[in-house]
Amino acid sequence: MMKIMTMMFMMFFVTCGYAEMIRGKQLFDKAQCMACHNSEDFKDKTISKSKTFEQMKEKVSACQINNDAQWFDDDEHDVAMYLNKEYYHFKQKE
After folding, report:
1. Under 8 Å between Cβ of 89 and 21
2. Quick one: which of 9, 3, 21, 8 has its CA closest to 87?
3. Which residue range is the domain that position 74 belongs to?
């Protein structure tokens, strides 16, 4: 019984993280972020000025404000999660 509960608990957290990234990609695409950026902006570590997840998240916030995307804090977080998973691979605070 304990194994089943542990597996269910783990699946819940994996599913939540996956949902954040899917939503982040949808927001990223809808805001047409690639109109200003290209994939090299995210892949090339020498171009990126972000050295941590928090710094990258601040850049996401600045971009959404500059482009009037009208995202909530959770939206910004989801976009940052998507970018981190897809391009940056920063470690995040637990």
Report:
1. no
2. 21
3. 2-88
